[in-house]
Task: structure prediction
Amino acid sequence: MSDHPEERARYFVLLELAHRDADVLAFWLTGSRGKGRATAASDYDCVLIVRDAVFDDWRARHAGRDRGRTDCSVMTLEGLRRHAAWGEAEAWDRYSYAHVRVLVDRTDGLCQRIIDEKARAPASEVAAFIDRSLDHYLNQTYRALKCLRDGLPLAARLEAAGAVTPVLDALFALDGGRLRPFAKYLEWELVEHPLARAPADLAPRLARLLDPAEAGPLRRLLADVEPIFREAGHGAVFDAWGADLAWMRG
Result:
């Protein structure tokens, strides 16, 4: 339930409209409500997919934020295909499609298939994406350890923080191309949709990584993720670091 009944009412108006108007090809909720993670403070983030011929009119009448907390995006089917394309500027938004189900569908399941594809990295890109992410993670780990060695604790914290995103990118992508969740969903993902291969107690270990008073958390995480990725065929990324890898291991 929402603490904002007028926004909830607006959502049901849009849902009813989607059910009865044949110009609507699909309708769903995104954001926290679309993932089943709503709180009383959650917005209603709606998506309407409409026929090309009515797009301009529907966007003018329905798109945007209405009365504060009901946000409606109006797109064509082709616009949906293009949005958050891999490698483009909006690719960061692909995780928005994870765990989302279409509520109204006149596309014979096509919209759901597009949504499901966007919620993962393209299969042809996964291996290279993991390699890039691993190299970034190793670079941040190396920098953090050097800062600790040189007695620069603040710099070490900042460099270690920079290691979190790429190691999560790599670990999630290793599980069938899954995408790193937005931070607010990370712990929920790890519990409700656990990774196939990941170090135990990953979330609290990442928290310790963000404030490394000494090298232990950095080196222990490295020791645990290295065999996971070597077994999956990404050992060359580690080998490329040569003697520096041995130093990072401690």
Notes: The CA atoms of residues 199 and 225 lie 7 Å apart. Strands lie at 24-30, 44-50, 64-66, 70-75, 104-105. The chain has a mean pLDDT of 94. The two ends are 52 Å apart (CA to CA).
